[in-house]
Specification:
By secondary structure, the chain is of the alpha+beta class. The strands form five sheets. The chain has a seven-stranded antiparallel β-sheet. Strands 14-13-12-18-17-16-15 form a seven-stranded antiparallel β-sheet. The radius of gyration is 30 Å and the shape is globular. The two termini are 38 Å apart.
Amino acid sequence: MRQPPVNRIAPDAIKAWKIAESILAGVFWLITIALFILAFIFEFSYWYGAGAAFISGLSTYFFVFLLPTLRWRRWRYEVFEQEIYIQHGILIVSRTLVPMIRVQHVDTKQGPILKKYKLASVEISTAATTHEIPALVEEDASDLRDRISALARVAATMFEPKRLHPAAILFNLIKTVREFLFAIVLGFITFRDESLFYFGLIIAVLLVLFITASVLTWYRYTYRIEEDELRIEYGVFIRKKRFISKNRIQSIDLTSGVIHRIFKLTKVQIETAGTGTSAEASLSAVKLEEGEALRQELKSSAVPPADDEEAPEETEKLPNPSAKISFKRLFIVGTTSGSVGVILALAAAGFSEFEQFIPEHYFDNTIEWVVGLGVIILIVMVIFLLLLLWLLGIAGTMIKYGNFTITKNDEELFITRGLLEKKQVTIPLKRIQAVGIQESIIRQPLGYVTVFAEIAGGSMDKGEDFSSILFPIMKRDELEEFLETFLPDYAGVQRELTPLPKQALKYYILRAAVPFLLLVAAVAIFIPAFIWIPLILLLVGGLLLGWIRYKDGGFTIRGRRLTLRYRVLSRNTLLLYHKRVQAFEKKQHKVQRLQNLATARFSIVGTMGAGKHFTIKDLAESHSDELSDWFSRRKDSED
């Protein structure tokens, strides 16, 4: 049995924890006092206050006087060359091993209470988890951080710390105001009559606080490069130090919004394998040339070539392959994007938030005005509204994908796009888990496809929802040339797939009919006179959608590569390799077993490090077994 770690944390950790827990206990005692005061004023039972006092006293004893000492006795750690060994817990003792090779970055953290006792905590982040060694002496925390960084092959050549461009103050202020915007609007609507003056004073005070916080955040944020790592220090009251090793960085993206472009600035976003909803590091405003130099420096190799190695013969470097969307194709992207529904949904969501603040007489007057209009005028207004939304959708899509250019540089794809906000996105080829071809209901008859990729790790800051667009639109017959140029491993898309069995058709039609059945039920309850409309939609829409979903479903295996095809509304063809598949799952309910059918699901690593799943329903059971054998590693060992 492995022995526990030998190093203890600082004894003053007990005092710091007792203070922190005392603050929390103070909240319980305030609630207890408030209950006694309310009982005295409103003359209800004092037992409520007595019960709260008993709970507060018991929690104070356990959390303030008993647990900090027990917690300190259990907390131990030890750092080896290959791993970090941590032990903690009171009733359940946990012992954690963190391999050095998995360490992404190391931070030190110090709040006001820890600072009082000259203590600091060390945070160790991997691609999936974060581990903390709390309450070390400041010098020990700094030495431990540097030692872990060194063992994780992080280097130590110092550059001068730099601050962000002062425009970052404006971006911080805009971000803060945006977070409080709904509360400000709600307050204005609530106090717009009798208390507007006082509301204005509150807004003025908040604005001063927001500006002060933005300035302090900018002033306390510095970054520097130490040969093989990026070091960031930030935090106004609680100081944090983040170390990001070069060899852990997966992509470095530059984004320039309207304000950035006015001042010739850019936003640098750095992602590692464990990045979540936001980038691992985000420098909100640096000069454009500094951002590009920072990207080149962090992308450079951390291991210099040996002196005795022969230099390779210089050869003429071929230009990097590149493709750019034309204005005509960009216009087609906008007209066939189907963004009218998205705009309507956003408008409906926004209206539902503010509906309760609109006086009822406005509704009454509006309904009377609409009823007074003729049917033809109403139809014309609806058509005009839909046309306006369609034009807005075209404009938004063209602004988003304007000047879309993809370039292949060695082992990565470099994408630039955007008219107002210019984005530069880097996609390492080794992080691509699967490549997909999407054909929407509108674009498929016209012969156009969209190429996308599923990327491991990363964040949601790229603005591509859950998949990364490799090219917004191209003709179907141009797809093979595109893949040969940029992703040769995924070239040779199989057109003929193993189809779904005939007995699966009825289940596809039944599932497709469910939304229309709900529509029929809703119309039957509220406006039964128009029940014939959803019935027609049910008959035509359910049959058609179910049939094309059944017709488009299928798969094929070619060596170590699998091609899946399925449809929700758009038809998706997915290309993935065996080594990228994290798990395979076969499901069968009772009806499927009777029909010799099964559902197959493949899982890969997706955005934010979460799983991404692809499902084909109602395969023939023999075909699902074929997919299981293809994935099974035992099959490989038998061969």
